[in-house]
Design a protein that fits this description.
The chain is an alpha+beta fold. 24% of the residues lie in helices and 24% in strands. Strand 9 and strand 10 form a beta hairpin. Helix 7 packs antiparallel against helix 8. The radius of gyration is 19 Å and the shape is globular. The protein starts with 33 loop residues before the first helix and ends in an 11-residue tail after the last strand. 47% of the residues are buried.
Length: 361
């Protein structure tokens, strides 16, 4: 790199009006936006049939919903993900056949953070408390025909190359809204800088496995649930990815943009406690600057630690971040770099696709 990224503290210190570098043509972010993952898997399974799909002017077809176990960290090594992602990066991300309102994310210096202390012995106790909190919930049970609405803030850090110069930069923290039908066959996505203001459809013939009905059908016995997670992730993960890491990532996917029934959510946390290498972290910060405790696991291959962040008092799930905690030959980013950060800002049940909480249908 020609320049080292300046220190950039917690995402809470980002502001919407903060001066940021102008955007430029960039590599696929090192982070793992759900949007890019779904687009990539849709192309691999459904749309890589003609060369015209890679045209920079081709509109994006409706996204076929993919299995939440099919994550970059599970399915593909980094190099292969970048290659497949190039197909996504070459597509115009539009919704409804129009690209008016589409924005480009600004970029600034690489986001960095203080690395919280990890405690392997503290993970089982913390996960037991989180499990009890997840089971004790008064959230409403969705009814047939309703949708799960998730609003979040997200950002990624990656290597940007302009000409012969490369540097680590971070996306502007931006909003993301997702609607999912209970059966996983219908949905909508609006993400600043990635879709038009109107968004894109997530309709498909194949049900989304992270949908409410699919989660409700999962076993609530932690041992049986973990066996199923290992079995599903083993079927799709790249051999270079350790199976324990793949299982941890898979559980994180099922927790983030979803609305699991209380008993299933509790079982997922108890299952996570049984995965070797899982640790507790004394302090972690989500994308909106909320401090909390975390459950985490380090990927020894790339030196990144995935952290699930919870409120210190209520133990409510706040968000996820990925932090470089160890230098490796395969990861050019500095220790302390936050490659992905997210925060759930609202989670609700609504009566219709694209309806906002509080709106009358």
């Amino acid at each position: 790199m020609n320049a080292s990224p300046s220190h950039r503290p917690h995402p809470a210190e980002w502001t919407e009006t903060q001066s940021l570098l102008p955007s430029a043509e960039r590599d696929l972010p090192a982070g793992r936006h759900q949007f890019h993952k779904e687009q990539m898997m849709a192309r691999i399974h459904e749309d890589l049939r003609t060369p015209s799909r890679t045209s920079a002017t081709s509109p994006v077809a409706p996204v076929k919903r993919s299995n939440p176990f099919l994550r970059r960290a599970i399915l593909l090594p980094a190099a292969a993900f970048a290659l497949a992602g190039a197909v996504v990066g070459g597509l115009a991300l539009t919704g409804g056949g129009a690209d008016d309102g589409k924005t480009t994310l600004a970029t600034g210096p690489a986001l960095t953070t203080r690395i919280g202390a990890a405690d392997a012995k503290g993970a089982p106790q913390l996960l037991e408390r989180i499990s009890l909190a997840a089971a004790d919930t008064s959230e409403p049970t969705p009814r047939k025909g309703q949708y799960i609405y998730i609003a979040s803030k997200v950002a990624d850090t990656y290597i940007k190359t302009v000409g012969d110069k490369s540097e680590a930069v971070s996306d502007e923290l931006h909003s993301r809204q997702v609607w999912n039908s209970l059966d996983g066959r219908d949905g909508w996505l609006i993400e600043a800088g990635q879709t038009s203001d109107k968004g894109i459809t997530l309709k498909g013939d194949t049900p989304f496995s992270g949908a409410y009905n699919a989660l409700a059908a999962l076993p609530t016995d932690p041992d049986a649930l973990l066996q199923r997670i290992y079995r599903e992730s083993d079927a799709v993960r790249d051999p270079e990815v350790p199976r324990d890491q793949a299982a941890f990532v898979a559980i994180g996917d099922l927790l983030f943009e979803s609305y699991p029934p209380a008993e299933v959510g509790a079982a997922l946390y108890k299952a996570a406690a049984k995965i070797p290498g899982v640790v507790s972290v004394d302090d972690a910060v989500d994308a909106t600057g909320r401090h909390g405790v975390a459950i985490a696991r380090e990927d020894s291959g790339n030196g990144e630690r995935i952290e699930w962040i919870f409120d210190k008092k209520t133990l409510r799930f706040l968000g996820e971040r990925i932090v470089v905690v160890k230098a490796t030959a395969d990861n050019p980013l500095k220790v302390g770099t936050v490659t992905h950060t997210s925060a759930i800002t609202e989670r609700a049940v609504v009566d219709a696709n694209k309806q906002l909480p509080g709106q009358v249908s």
